Amino acid sequence: MAKNEAKTDIELFNYLTNEKNFLKEWLPQKTENSNIQDILSKASKSEKGNQGSPDLIYLNEDKKLLILIENKDKINDHKSPKLNNPQHYAVDGIKHYL
């Protein structure tokens, strides 16, 4: 079965924006915060110094809260055994951005 992460991303985005109550909006892959965008501008998971883009970003500067989501469509892609494969696993990918 082919991966369909874009569909999963859209479903999660719709759930977070329509079913949950957040003070600020969820954004797909980018934020207007220049500090975060500067960090992401060289945070590619391939580690080549290119743009890195988590699937979803939530930023509430008033509460000093940043949530990054790496979303995968299969539970088997949740995390690798050694947490060292950010291109293919969600937890590994978020760990990479930290």
Describe this protein with a few key phrases.
13% strand, three-stranded antiparallel β-sheet, single chain, 3 strands, alpha+beta, 98 residues
What does this structure look like?
There is one protein chain. The protein is an alpha+beta fold and 98 residues long. The protein contains three helices and three strands, in the order H-E-H-E-E-H. A three-stranded antiparallel β-sheet has the order 1-2-3, covered by helices on one side.
Please give a quick description of this structure.
The chain has 98 residues and is α+β, with helices and mostly antiparallel strands. Helices cover 30% and strands 13% of the residues.
Radius of gyration: 14 Å
Total number of helices: 3
Mean pLDDT across all residues, rounded?
Answer: 88
Classify the helix fraction into a percent range.
25-40%
Alpha-beta content class: alpha+beta
**Approximately how much beta-strand content do the residues carry?**
5-15%
What distance lies between the first and last C-alpha atoms, to the nearest angstrom? 31 Å
Query: Could you list the spans in which at least 5 consecutive residues all have pLDDT below 50?
Result: none
Secondary structure: number of strands: 3
| Spatial order of strands in the largest sheet | 1-2-3
Main β-sheet, in a few words?
3 strands, antiparallel
Order of helices and strands: HEHEEH
Estimate the global geometry from the Cα principal axes: globular
